[in-house]
Amino acid sequence: MDVTGVEAGLLLVLLFAPALSCVLKSIAFRNRAAGKASLMRAKAASGDREGRGRGARKRGGCG
């Protein structure tokens, strides 16, 4: 059976799709966390302490 480049590429995409999805979710989580941290720093710099006192929530990851 001959495997063309397109078929081989499709096989690789299907093979690595779950891992790639996990990496993309991790990147998105880090971006959201960075944005929240930036907002918290801005609020702290402005003297607004309203959002404090809440504990960190544990989020599930991949795997």
Keywords:
63 residues, mainly alpha, 1 helix
Describe the structure.
The chain has 63 residues and is mainly α. It is built from one helix and no strands. The longest helix has 42 residues, at 5-46. The radius of gyration is 20 Å and the shape is elongated. The two termini are 35 Å apart. The mean pLDDT is 82.
Cα end-to-end separation: 35 Å
Strand content: under 5%
Label the structural class.
Answer: mainly alpha
What is the 3D shape? Answer: elongated
Largest sheet: none
Order of helices and strands: H
Mean pLDDT across every amino acid position:
82
As a percent range, the share of helical residues equals: 55-70%
Radius of gyration: 20 Å
SSE layout and pairings?
Elements lengths: L4 H42 L17
In short:
The chain has one helix at 5-46. With 63 residues, it is an all-alpha fold.
